[in-house]
Amino acid sequence: MHGVDLTHSYKLGVDKLALQAIADLAISAGDAIMQYYHGEKGLGIQQKSDDSPVTLADLASHGVIVEGLKQLTPNIPIMSEEAPNISWSERQSWTVYWLIDPLDGTKEFIGQNGEFTVNIALIVNGQAVAGVVYAPVLGKCYCGSLGQGAWCIDDHQNTPFSLTATAKVKRSKPIVVGSRSHPSPELGQYLDSLPAYELLSVGSSLKFCMLAEGKADLYPRLGPTSEWDTAAAQAVLEAAGGKVSCYPKRQPLRYNTKEEILNPYFIATSADYS
Questions:
Q1: What angle, 0 to 180 degrees and rounded to 10, lies between the N-to-C axes of helices 16-37 and 56-72?
Q2: Cβ atoms 244, 268 nearer than 8 A
Q3: H or E stretch including 117?
Q4: Quick one: which of 110, 122, 143, 219 has the fewest CB in 10 Å?
Q5: How far apart are CA 35 and CA 263, in angstroms?
Q6: Tens digits of per-residue pLDDT, 197-219?
C-alpha cells in the first residue's frame, strides 16, 4: 500500500484520489467485520469498562484500519475507540490526526439489523475536514471532504450529492432521525417542541448520511456520544452542505479541544434546515 500525500490539502480537506485510498481501507475493514457477521467466526462479545459491548469484529476492523493508515500516512497519529488510552498531555499537541471508530453501532451489529458502519475521519486543528463512512451490509461507502464535496460509492459507482446545489422543496413535516439504541428524555422534550415531524429510528452514523443525501432533515443528539462516533459522518454531511452544531449554544462541533472525549449535545441538519 503506497503512502498518501496529504501535505498540501489539510486545510481544504483531502483530494478525491487520496480519500479513495481511505475508502478502500474502510471497505477492507468492513470485509473483516462481515466474516463475523455471517457467522464464519464467533462474535466473542465482551463488556468494556463503560459497560458497552465490544466484539472480535470491532478488534479485527481496528487492526485493518490502523495497519493501513500507518502505511498510508506514517507520520499522522491515530486515535481509535479500541485504543483510546492516549494521554491528554500527548494528544493536545496534535494538529492533525486520524480519528476512527472501527465498528460504529456494535449493538446493531450484534442484533444483525445491518445498521452499523466503519468510520474514518481526518481531524485538522479540531475540525473534521474529511471522512469516510462505510456500511458493509448496505455496500455503501459515503465520502466527504471540505472543498471537494461528498459522494457515495455503491456497486463501484461514484454518485455525488450536494444539499446546496440541488433546490429541494422544504417538507411540510421535517424527517427527524434518532438513535435506535440510545433514546433519551432530553430528545423527547426537544421533539415535543417541534410543531410536526416524522421520526425514523436509525443506527450508527447512517443518520448523518441520510441528512447528507437529503433523505432526512434533522438529527438531534441530546445524549452521550464520543468523538469517534461523529467525526467521519460530520465531515461527510458538512462536505455536502449540512451542518453540525452544539446544542443549545450553537457553536460548531469540534474535536480534541479538551481532555474528555465525550461530545456535547448537538443537532445535525441538512442545508434546508441549517
A1: 160
A2: yes
A3: strand 117-124
A4: 110
A5: 31
A6: 999 999 899 999 999 999 999 99
Q: CA angle 261-207-203, nearest 5°?
A: 80
The residues near 133 (Cβ < 8 Å, ≥ 6 apart) are 26, 117, 118, 119, 141, 142, 205, 206, 208, 209, 232, 233, 236
Q: Is the peptide bond before 195 cis (omega within 30 degrees of 0)?
A: no
Closest by CA to 37, choosing from 115, 105, 110, is: 110
Which residues on adjacent β-strands are paired with residue 218?
Answer: 176, 269
All three cell numbers of 92, joined, read: 493536545
C-alpha cell belonging to residue 11: 486545510
CB 64 within 8 A of CB 85: no
**pTM confidence score:** 0.92
- CA distance linking residue 7 with residue 205, whole number of Å: 28
d(CA 91, CA 109): 30
pLDDT, tens digit, for every residue of 119-176? 999 999 999 999 999 999 999 999 999 989 999 999 888 888 876 654 455 678 899 9
Question: What cell was used for 76?
Answer: 499522522
Amino acid at 167: A
Query: How far is residue 107's CA from residue 54's CA, in Å, rounded to a whole number?
Result: 9
**Distance between CA atoms of 130 and 198, rounded to whole angstroms?**
30
